[in-house]
Amino acid sequence: MPQVELAWGAATAVGQREDNQDRYLASPPVFAVADGMGGHVGGAAAAETVVEALRSVTGSGTTTVAKIRLALQRADGEIRAFRGADKAGAGTTVAGVALVDEGGGPQWAVFHVGDSRVYRWHEGRIELCTKDHSVVQELIDAGHISDESAATHPQRHIITRALGVGARGGPEVVLLPVVPGDRFLCCSDGLTGELSDERIAELVSGSANPSVDADAMVAETVRVGARDNVTVTLVQVVMGPELGSR
After folding, report:
1. Number of domains observed in the structure of the chain
2. How far apart are CA 237 and CA 191, in angstroms?
3. Which residues of 186-200 are buried (b: 16+ CB within 10 A; e: fewer)?
């Protein structure tokens, strides 16, 4: 297996909420954020369930798409089996990247359910790798509202897919190449609800240290108000399988 060297960071803050229902995983080869919902206890427990399921596929250089799907399927079932009034209706989004080997060498698997997002910093610009599973995104796709009006739309917080609630379904997964210098940002909507993509791009590429930049993103979100929990993981390819370090 060709060597892939990574550097990463992660940060979270409660914002103006009473409790932090976000959870994150930054443990190679998986980097992910889960945003729980459905009450303080239930939301946090749902997000934690997803993170622990994904943690079960860490500890080696790569994993597989099948293992990621199976881990999330298991988490979905465990959340649906929650009992007790404090966990009723619990669910969670998830967005992440995993270094996978699908037979042709290492690749990035970008996966998500809900409106948590994954961005890629590639060749000097930021790209959104996921499409929100949300009412507002469906309205945008249908041409009923513009991207600009989505940020203030009254239904902007309503999601159409989540783990643990609603119709069962696995994550959307996209495979991307491993490119030295690329960075992947996984974030809850507490970040994207406060900062523009342009500002996120500036912060993603702010320094040579992804841990410093992850802290800076969360700190700025808190400074501008952070109405929701905000959580990020940021991972950078330091050395790739063919091109070496950059």
Report:
1. 1
2. 23
3. bbbbbbbbbbeeeeb
pTM: predicted TM-score of the whole model, two decimal places: 0.91
End-to-end Cα distance, the chain: 20
CA gap 145, 215 in Å, rounded: 33
What residue type is 52 in one-letter code? E
Count how many Cα atoms sit within 13 Å of the Cα of residue 62 in the half-sphere of its side chain: 20
Q: What is the CATH number of the domain that holds 175?
A: 3.60.40.10
Phi, psi of 75 (to 5 degrees): -65, -40
Q: How many CB atoms lie within 10 A of CB 131?
A: 14
Are residues 172 and 161 in contact, defined by beta-carbon separation less than 8 angstroms?
Answer: no
What are the pLDDT digits (tens) for 27-56?
999 999 999 997 668 999 999 999 999 999
Residue 244 lies in a domain: no
Residue 245 lies in a domain: no
Query: In 3D, which of 58, 19, 14 has the Cα closest to residue 226?
Result: 14
pLDDT at residue 245, as a whole number? 39
What is the identity of the amino acid at 133? H
CA distances from 95 to 50, 142, 206 (A): 10, 24, 22
Give the per-residue pLDDT at 179. Answer: 94
Residue with tokens 């079932």: 77
**Which residues constitute the domain of residue 157?**
5-239
- At residue 33, the 3 state secondary structure works out as strand
Q: Where are the alpha helices (DSSP H) in the chain?
A: 40-55, 65-80, 135-141, 147-150, 189-192, 197-204, 210-223
